[in-house]
Automatic annotation (TrEMBL), chain A:
Residues 227-342 form the SecDF P1 head subdomain domain. Residues 73-129 form the Protein translocase subunit SecDF P1 domain. Its main location: membrane. One of its GO terms (molecular function) is protein-transporting ATPase activity. This is Protein translocase subunit SecD. The lineage of its organism: Bacteria, Bacillati, Actinomycetota, Actinomycetes, Actinomycetales. It is a multi-pass membrane protein. Forms a complex with SecF. Part of the essential Sec protein translocation apparatus which comprises SecA, SecYEG and auxiliary proteins SecDF. Other proteins may also be involved. Residues 574-587 have a biased composition (Low complexity). Residues 162-185, 572-632 are annotated as: Disordered.
TrEMBL record, chain B:
The keyword Transmembrane applies. It is a multi-pass membrane protein. Its main location: membrane. Forms a complex with SecD. Part of the essential Sec protein translocation apparatus which comprises SecA, SecYEG and auxiliary proteins SecDF. Other proteins may also be involved. It comes from Flaviflexus salsibiostraticola. This is Protein-export membrane protein SecF. GO terms for cellular component: plasma membrane. InterPro entries: SecD/SecF_arch_bac (IPR022813), SecD/SecF_bac (IPR022645), SecD/SecF_CS (IPR022646), SecD_SecF_C (IPR048634), SecF_bac (IPR005665). The chain crosses the membrane at residues 25-43, 141-160, 165-185, 191-208, 252-271, 277-301. One of its GO terms (molecular function) is protein-transporting ATPase activity. One of its GO terms (biological process) is protein targeting. Part of the Sec protein translocase complex. Interacts with the SecYEG preprotein conducting channel. SecDF uses the proton motive force (PMF) to complete protein translocation after the ATP-dependent function of SecA. The gene is secF.
Amino acid sequence: MTATEEATEGSPRPRLLVFALIVIALVASLAASTLTGSESRWSPDLALDLEGGTQIILTPVTDDGSEITPEDISQAIEIIRQRVDASGVAEAEITSQGGSNIVVGLPGTPSEETLDLVRTSAVLRLRAVIDYTGQVLANTGLQPVYEPGVDVTEEQLAQAREQADLNGDGSISAEPTETPDSPSSDAWITEEILYQALTLDCTSESARVQNAYSAADSPVVACDPTTGASYILGPAELDGSHIDQATSGPRVNEMGQTIGGWQVNMEFTGEGGDLFGQVTTRLAGYPYGTAKNLFAIVLDGSIISVASLQAPILGGSASISGSFTAPEAASLANQLSFGSLPLTFEVQSEEQISATLGSEQLVNSLIAGAIGAGLIVLYLLWQYQGLGLLAVTSITMVMGLSYLTISLLSWTMGYRLSLAGVVGLIISIGISADSFIVYFERVRDEIREGRTLRDAVDYGWNRARQTILVSDAVNLVAAIVLYFLAVGGVRGFAFTLGLTTVIDVVVVILFTYPVMKLLVRTKFFGEGHRLSGMSAASLGADPVYAGRGRVRDRGVSKSEAKANAKKARRAAASEDAAQAAARAGTAVDTLDEKSQRKKGRAQTPESHSPGERPMTLAQRKAAERRAGRDEN
Amino acid sequence: MSMYSLGNDLYSGQRSFNIIGRRRLWYGIALAFILLSAVLLLVKPINFGIDFRGGSQFTVSGTANMGQQDAIDVVAAQTGDDSVRVSEVGANSIRVQTSELTNEQTQEVRAALADVYDVPVDDVASTFIGPTWGADVSSKAIQSLVIFIGLISLILWAYFRTWTIAVGAIGALLHDLIITAGVYVASGFEVTPATVIGLLTILGYSLYDTVVVFDKVRENTAGFLDQEETTYAEQANLAVNQTLIRSINTSVTGLLPVGAILVIGVLFQGAGTLRDLSLALFVGMLISAVSSIFLAAPLAVTLGERQKDIKEHTERVLSARPAVQDTTITRKKKA
């Protein structure tokens, strides 16, 4: 029987050593990160509801009601992240939630422009290139006003405004001076475009969103973030809705043979194919390699691809090839696919949390946690006396490890502790107490069965471990389901609940049980001191009592059981008398226990051989009854 | 009598609460509460929070002025909206709920509220909630519930190797959920997403307790067909009694921190995540502690006794037993 083997298993020290190593590893990694990094890692970062900030929950919806895939969501998150990063808001938190929502958390009080950037959907447009920006500025004899990488000052903007005002009327016109004959016409280079060209610094992050929402029917200056170059582009000729789908794959020649490298394949819709045919016919008319031969695919004001044309592309399918790596090609295909979705964001909820309210809530929940923990400590000490201390230490270990782990996750994975997360931590104090209670009640049960304290600690563990594991598994499943499916603040709650459940298992196996084994070797606990919580007297299990109707279960012959029961029956002729005797027995036990204590540890007169389990009293009583019947 | 000696007597069977034997009584009580809750849920409109109605909400924190009329006037002046709900949140905060406002209106109302309550604008928290948000939360909650029950049924079935226990546990779980919802409706507290989270969390708790009781039932009834002394129901009853002290202790330690959050939440914060979450949890955990004792195990016994081998065994044991032995049995025969 495995229980027996495990019951005699060796020293508890290896488990404690593993536990100590875990704690040391956690503390050391946090210490190392605090020493090497600029900020302390001893406390987790707080989520917006505790720190104050703005949280927007968006649901992407398609105009045509088509299904939104997880890829669309992650692409949308990527795009929102780029916009938010570009707007200069640090530490924004953008996550998907429940598979269909996007949660954007912005610390502090973001500007309306930033919020608009978040709320607006991504726009994919195909525009013809009119010229390289640098070329145009050189032709007009102008110099950009900015210094690369430095924010443009008001002064520089005024200077650019003056330079761009070609006709000197004091305002910058967005109207072409003459009617452009095509979207590739130089006539589109208006005062407004010159102004943009003078001020748009493609080496700065904010350039990416500067022209994100230019109108489709007007020209724009756009950056190619990969090269840092900028182009002047004509009005949009196609948009995302004209693309049916985009995929990436190995580059093939016209014969369909792979020729090395990667390409992106675009399929246009019927209308899109016709339009693209017209555009490419016009662009292919310009000499290959010149600016006007290029067309640009612009997502959100940033150029994601500029390609030159050798020939008109008719028939509605095109492929873009270049020096792509496979991931680059895949990323471009994703962007095109996402841009082809007629996707808009619906604001589900927008919340501005004041830092005052957040810190108030944090303080209140910490007070609540302290009170709750204090009450549990008192209760456990009352219930389990000396062993209550072990329970309290175990709970402290669970809370300490949870805190360290959360700090570590905050550092490594950007986890942020929310109010619901704090509540989850507080509630889990109770869960970690549960594991101890389940274990210790089992130990008491084993003592009641007549085992010695030392045996009870091991046998009780073998039984309790299973119960603890399965009930913790139930808790974990609940936490996981909540985490993956639920919306709103559930996530932080589910996360801490799940985390502490796992930590609870670790602590109970690697700490509570081995320490219990060590404690039972001490005189105070091992000999069942009155205040140890393991006292056989207060449990009522003592030699006389345990010895009385003790019978063996399975594998024991009925006659033997009957004989035992008869012995018991002699002490009590009827059921009632038996109970009276049992009560009296308890009193005797107490006396007896005192004398036993003098001798040392209470021993059960019958030791159980491996594999046999004593009968429970109910079974025993039934046996007594049967014996009584048989005799009468 | 101390908990120790009570625990001992319960364990040995010297004292035994006849819980399984009176199961019809518990079923009756549970059914009455379920019906009451169901009727309440149908008749009384649920007090849905703003997350379910949609609208805008402002929380002014740290103000000395607790006058509610000021807020009503401010919102009416800025937006013409006169269906404003104002409530005090804790000792020095005011919560103002309005219909849906535009971004500009939100800015204006925030500024005006900061002005009239004499706090910095940053201390006025604003929330906009779209009308479908609450519905989204509810549908996700129901989805979670269904998936959870499915998964847990599989786990329980795999662990206990019998469907009766899985059904008993899930039955007790649904009972807990319905009655908690009923208590919520009866109390008239606002139902917010935090309440829904609380309800879902009860799932784990309710089962935790139930699983521990069932584990003991399983242990006590292992191989019981080989003996002729006690019936399945009696063994199960002993198991429930043997785990009673543990059930009480785990329930108390579970409820203590939740109770602390509830008291602190209500005292210092009024309406809010803390109160909503902890109230649902407190009620649910209390009910699930009771139901794990009085409902889950009796349900498993009722279902188990329908199985042929157990049924035959029970008859065998009872027929071999003279009339005046056990209170459980006498009651049964009278019934």
